[in-house]
Amino acid sequence: MDIIVCVKQVPVTAEAEVMVDSSGRDIKKDRLVFDVNEADNYAVEEALQLTEKFGGTITLVNLGPESADKTLRSLLAKGTHEAVRLTDEHFDESDAYVTARILAAALKSLSYDLVLTGCYSSDLGYSQVGAALAELLGIPHATMVIGLEVLDGKIKVERELEGGTHERLEIDLPALLTIQTGINEPRYASILGLRKAMKKPIKVLTLTDLGLAEGEVGRDGSKVFLDTLSVPPKGEGAQILEGGPDEVSQKLVDIFREKGVV
Amino acid sequence: MLAEHRMGELRDVTREMLTRGRQLAEETGAQLVTGLLGHQVEQFAEDLKKWAHQVVLIEDEKLANFNADAYQRVLASLLGDRTPDVTLIGHTSYGMDLAPALAVEMDLPLVTDCLDLRLEDGKPIALRQVYNGKLNAEMSFAGTPCLVMMRQGAIAVGTGDLDGQVARMDSPLTEEIAYRKFLEYVEAAVGDVDITQADVLISVGRGIREEKNMPLVEDLAQAMGGVLSCSRPVTDSGWLPSDRQVGQSGRTVKPKLYVAVGISGAFQHLAGMTGSETIVAVNKDPNAPIFSVADYGIVGDLFQVIPALTERIKETRGS
Q1: Identity of the residue in A14, A141, A256 whose CB atom sits nearest the CB atom of B206
Q2: Which of A140, B165, B168, B249 sits at 20 to 30 Å (Cα–Cα) from A167?
Q3: What is the pTM of this model?
């Protein structure tokens, strides 16, 4: 079973301060750490488990700058087989639709039974590229996948709906699935794996390699535009309790007593 | 506007979108039309016509359960006929399976996961949250018609006092979708603890970092006579079972006291807990969105604050 996993490198912002840069359309990235997007990491693990069971190869496809090689190598180190990076200055400011078009152009020359992506990226979080890519490739898809079982020529998937409800579907292969976090337990790369991954080649493809034109990509090819980024207005917000751990603990206990919960 | 329903009930996002849709329609003198697709769903049309100028009802056995591909075919036909300037679809599991592919097929601009939509000189401007809710983004469209996916719970529902028409249309589907079949719904099992029934919830998030740190919050929950719940990263890591997860994909809780420990407050989490009577948040990031919904906040290191709090509560209860 040959699998393509589309992976994105994102700034880790869950616990970091995020500031808008001078363009007003992007963030200051110099002090942020970059890593594989969380949901994509689960997608890679799912691909590893499937190829361990059914054989086949895993090809990583990344749209990103040269610095994304760090993420690609960390995923090659886990046992994925090949990596392709799509890099061109014209790709900057592409919307999710154009991102899907660039990925589709790269996938045209690859063979696959299954395409996996994360269901959501922790930076801009459009949740759009996967299903758009499937439409461009002309294959069935399912998003928010939290469980799967490969059958003969088909795949049974469990999708996460809201409020703890899931639905089960059966779709024909080849197919594209967007993977939700929590579907598996992503492994860590071994030291040996990391050493081997440093020697693996990463194939780089540009706009012309992909047979795309300048006007089709970037801001020119996009249909929606991120115009401004801003810090959200603060609401009333919490009353912040000041003091050391013991002092704030006492204040909390007083509040709990007053509310009758302790 | 696409009405969303599941297992015999309209989803809340439907009335939220109708509320905003009606306001935009009234601003511009446009009509708000809602598409209602399904099998034996006529009863929803009676409700929806109070919220929209027209309800287009398309019933077909092949639409009995949500199927993104079947919906895509019907909507492509409907949007092709009607060419609405703006089409609203919920940013839900169903919507995420449907709208991005529909946008590609129809060659339409799409902005997903919008908190709000307004018109500026007649042009739609969408408001989104990015980078874990730490920044807002304003998005514009190359033109109309366009598709907009609205986040659940982002818009306060107004009142449905219109008296719209119901227009029945034939389904354009000629055959079942062979390559995608709905099998069944699976309801999450409730384990030995039902977090929706607890008066005091100690809820733990990504900030706890490692499984070996979990006793910190377990001790606090025990000392307070509360129940342990969590945000998504904790169940994803397998440190607590999924029936302890608070948020959009988990449970909605309304305890007397909700103590959020190391939870930054992604919107999906907030959707499940803002109904709590009193909310306390402990987080090291002063800009964490959780502080905007909390009543009391402690900006600090949970590894220092939580043990101190547990001790103080034990002392208080013991005395």
Answers
A1: A14
A2: B168
A3: 0.94
